[in-house]
Amino acid sequence: MGNKVCIGLSGGVDSSVAAYLLKEQGYDVFGLFMINWKETTGTLTAECTWEDDVIFAEMTAKKLDIPFHIVDLSDFYRTRVVDYMFSEYEKGRTPNPDVLCNREIKFDIFLQKALDLGADFVATGHYCRKTITEVDGKMIYSLLEGLDPNKDQSYFLCQLNQYQLSKSLFPIGHLLKPDVREIAREQGLITAERKDSQGICFVGKVDLPVFLQQKLSPKKGNVILIPADFSAKKKLTDRSRENLPLLTAAFPFKPWQGTIIGEHNGAHFYTIGQRKGLNIGGFVEPLFVLAIDVVRNIVYVGEGKEHPGLYRPGLFVSREELHWIRTDRVLKPGEEFNFLVRIRYRQPLEKATMIMEETGAYFLFEQEQRGITSGQFAAWYDGEELIGSGVIW
User: Fold this and answer.
1) What is the C-alpha separation between 166 and 189, in angstroms, rounded?
2) Which residues are catalytic?
3) pTM for the complete prediction?
4) Same domain assignment for residues 247 and 330
5) Among residues 277, 310, 343, which one ends one of the domains?
């Protein structure tokens, strides 16, 4: 295996330090900057654009004395990530574009571009780790959490496969963020004090309703308040297999169960657990979105962050949406296993039992989870290793 590595230089401190470490380790390194998004509709103009990022990336490459290239992947990003986002929101689901960006762009199109340029590996500044073991004569690639508990980004890579991992390097996964910045300072890298990027992967911070209105039309509908003691909410203690659909379904609110308290401009502009953007006053505690019905164009809300409608005992991932990083650990229908599960970035891992059926996988948590959201990714871990993931039904 060769030692030529393409580092995805983003103009941030993490990829800059990753490039430096690779060079120190003796790799033949070159930098490649991705242009993934050029538009500004819906973006908050105070955020840096890709033009700023590419300047920082190129100056980093010059400082480290490594070749630097630019590749425009914006057409791929639009079709594979942004169009998917619009489609999911239209269906009343809340997608995770960062996970899609890694699966579809960074470790697919970008990876292929890097290989075309002669790279043996592609490296990124993600806070995660990779290990290699041999099982029955076959190399198994494992994705582990980053050692910095505040920056672990393994969740964002939960859709990678064995081939993508075999070609990937994560040079800073063993470091803490303050140590990364300190290395950047010591080496005089221009990115040392640069703020981390926020918002949608490569798009930046956005005014989501404005961003979505590029494709999704506003449509007035009712906001319905569900009382905290709604009678249909039952604590199901029987966790038998026949009860799995009830235990893992989003609560089926009915229009007549609550009270109309206002209007919204389109149910597809809202997401579970959302607090801001309702613009309805007169309540002691803040209102939170409990559920959305895009067919009837209804937004269901509850008063207070501990409203029981925000909590569910489990979730379901359909068979078509199941993805196993460790393909040697796939469960068969009828089998179950206790995993640690994460349903959003930076959420603490929660104990859950994965129960495999012909139709897909049910996850029952030890503790009810707040804000389980359709369209987001559930990722399951065994210890610090990410085993698989899937889109929440």
Assistant:
1) 29
2) 101, 201
3) 0.91
4) no
5) 310
